[in-house]
Amino acid sequence: MSTLFGEPPSCNHVQPDGAELRDLGVARIRSRRPGLVRKLSRAFLAHLLTHGPSTSDPLRTMVPIPPEVDPRVVGATVLGLAQVGLIVPVGRRRSNRPAARHRWLELWALADARAAAAWLSANPELGPDDP
User: Is the distance from CB of 116 to CB of 73 less than 8 angstroms?
Assistant: First the structure.
């Protein structure tokens, strides 16, 4: 592509697509709140181990989100677990939270229960001073 005058454009910025923006947002949340993300990850994996496939709805009641934290940390955490292959989507279900207005949510299941249990053993809850 060239400009009106036949020269190549001096600024060839490629805009990230939706998936890239989502992944950047997930990484940003995970780096800013590692203790909370670890707590959410552990709670969701434990929930899936004991109850089977689920949406993220129960996670919001299991781990309180501080008021100063963007509640999308829950979705970022769940997506992070999927990105590392610990959970897989197996369908969709409507949310039972009134604030979510019964929108459709992914239904998640463990990809491998032994891998999830191993991850829980290898990733204890972080303390308040841990990075």
Answer: no
The pTM assigned to this predicted structure is 0.79
Please name the residue that has the structure tokens 């100063």. 68
Determine the CATH number of domain 18-122.
1.10.10.10
Dist. CA 10–CA 29, nearest whole Å: 33
| pLDDT tens-place string over residues 51-95 | 999 999 999 889 999 998 888 899 999 999 999 999 999 999 998
Rg of the Cα atoms in the chain: 19
Return the residue matching tokens 């670890």. Answer: 38
Domain boundaries, the chain: 18-122
Rounded distance between C-alpha atoms, residue 22 and residue 7, angstroms: 34
Mean pLDDT of 108-112: 97
Task: Please list, residue by residue across 91-114, b when 16 or more beta carbons sit within 10 angstroms of its beta carbon and e when fewer do.
Answer: eeeebebeeeeeeebbbbebeeee
